[in-house]
Structures are given as structure tokens and as C-alpha cells.
Fold this sequence. Notes:
The chain is an alpha/beta fold. The chain has one domain: Vaccinia Virus protein VP39 (Rossmann fold, 3-Layer(aba) Sandwich), CATH 3.40.50. Helices cover 24% and strands 37% of the residues. Helix 1 (43-53) runs parallel beside helix 2 (71-79). The chain is globular and about 50 Å long. 41% of the residues are buried.
Amino acid sequence: xxARERVxxxxxxxxxxxxxxEHDGHHEIxxxxxALMSSRxxxxxxxxxxxxxxxxxxxxxxxxxxxxxxxxxxxALDLLPEGGRAIQxxxxxxxxxxxxxxxxxxxxxxxxDSRAKLIRGDVNKVLQRYRGVLHALMxxxxxxxxxxxxxxxxxxxxxxxxxxxxxxxxxxxxxxYWCSNEEPEFASALGRGGFEVTKHxxxxxxxxxxxxxxxxxxxxx
Length: 221
């Protein structure tokens, strides 16, 4: 059996090591020696987009925070209506380069789609540029409200972060948060922030297989 090979690495702002591994043609991103995402298991990243991108109006503008291996962006692009556009925000240059290289083929190289705009930067700052214009927003930043990669990511899930999301969405717009675990306190905070909240179980692999995750959806009412 072919050994797993490390083909890339990077450091986050707080010093956490992020690594890209290749094994038998598949890729995996590991943070601090813990698996973060894999090209073998990406069902929940696809469902993140499905919950908020299905049935959008023509010309819809959507934004994805956190690139991962590109599966959420790919699904959002597949669901975009006529004239729709997607903005992909990613903080780490290394993750972008991995997706522009061989790792991107797993999700069909969505960054190369003409409907996708890439912004390299902090999604908190980027959202301030898009006040009241987003039809859908997908946030797969770190592991959710309990950060694993970079402690600075936690700000997105506090009161100010929820308000930032509210301001970025159009009336009736929806936001979906990917969470590695159930997050009842965050779901309640989202409700207090004025969102109509639903919670969904999701699995890393289709047919309810693999690790279980949670997707929290908020609709601006």
C-alpha cells in the first residue's frame, strides 16, 4: 500500500500547523495533526450549500467563507440560477494554492469557474463590503463556534459576528454554518440576533455514514 505523503504545509496566524497530505490520489487537510477535511468525505460541505442555495432568484449573489477543498463552492455554483455569482473568501494563501493545484480536481476546479470570484482575506472584513446584498451565505470557518485552527476565528460566532452576517444579507436571505458538533448555545444566539433558525444533522459521507456534523441555518426575517 502506498504511504501517505505530505505535499504541503502552512501556519495560521496563531501558529497552528496546517498540512496537505496525498494518498492514493486523494487529498486531506490536517490541522495540528487532526483531520480537518478530506476529498473522500465531503457530503456535509455539499449540504451546507444545498440548504441555502436551492431555489434562489435569478442574479443571486452568494458568498462562501472558508474554501476547504472546494466542495461547498462547487455545489453553490451548480445551484446558482441564471446570472448568479459566487464569492469565495479564503484567508490562507496555501489553501488557495492547493485548490488551484491537484487538490482542486476533486471538486471540479470551482475556482476556475468564471462565475466565481476569489477574495483572499478575513471573511469578517470582507462581509463589511457586502451590506444588504447577499442572497445566501455559507460559513465553514474552522470547526464552527469552537475553533480548532485559529482562535481568532471565534469572533465570527459572537454577537458582533452575527450582526455582521445580518447586515450582509438581503431580507429573506439565508446563512448556513458548518459545525463539527451540535452547538445549541450558538443556535440560540443566532435566534436572538433576529434569525429564524433551523438545525440539520449532516454526515461526512452520503446515506448517513461517516462522522456526524451539524448545519445551522438562519433566515433573515
